[in-house]
UniProtKB/TrEMBL annotation:
The chain crosses the membrane at residues 33-50, 57-78, 84-103. Its main location: membrane. It is found in: Cell membrane. This is Guanidinium exporter. It comes from Pseudomonas silesiensis. GO terms for cellular component: plasma membrane. PANTHER family: GUANIDINIUM EXPORTER (PTHR30561:SF0), SMR FAMILY PROTON-DEPENDENT DRUG EFFLUX TRANSPORTER SUGE (PTHR30561).
């Protein structure tokens, strides 16, 4: 259950990061509210998962999902560049996440 909560927390991190971008510096009410609600939910799920997962593992997985997810959302929805260097960086992050999961098993 902790891993499911952690993955969902990471997905919510992507949602709040995207909505923060859409809020234009927290000047648009709708995206600002979405940002704050998703942020609180993400932190709550992360906190729950940390009850049984090691701090380093949980935090690394959470931030990794957020980083790679935000990278993908930026490319897909915001037209951000997908240069070779950025893609390699994302692959390295995912590799680190897999290694962290394997190390905590």
């Amino acid at each position: 259950m902790a891993w499911i909560c952690l993955i969902f927390a990471g997905v919510l991190e992507v949602v709040w990061a995207f909505s923060m971008k859409q809020s234009e510096g927290m000047t648009k009410l709708g995206p600002t509210v979405v940002t704050l609600v998703m942020l609180m939910a993400s932190f709550a799920l992360l906190s729950f998962s940390m009850k049984s997962l090691p701090l380093g593992t949980a935090y690394t997985i959470w931030t990794g999902i957020g980083a790679v997810g935000a990278f993908a959302v930026g490319i897909i929805f915001l037209g951000e560049p997908a240069s070779l260097m950025r893609v390699v960086a994302a692959v390295l992050i995912v590799s680190g996440l897999v290694m962290m999961k394997l190390a905590s098993a």
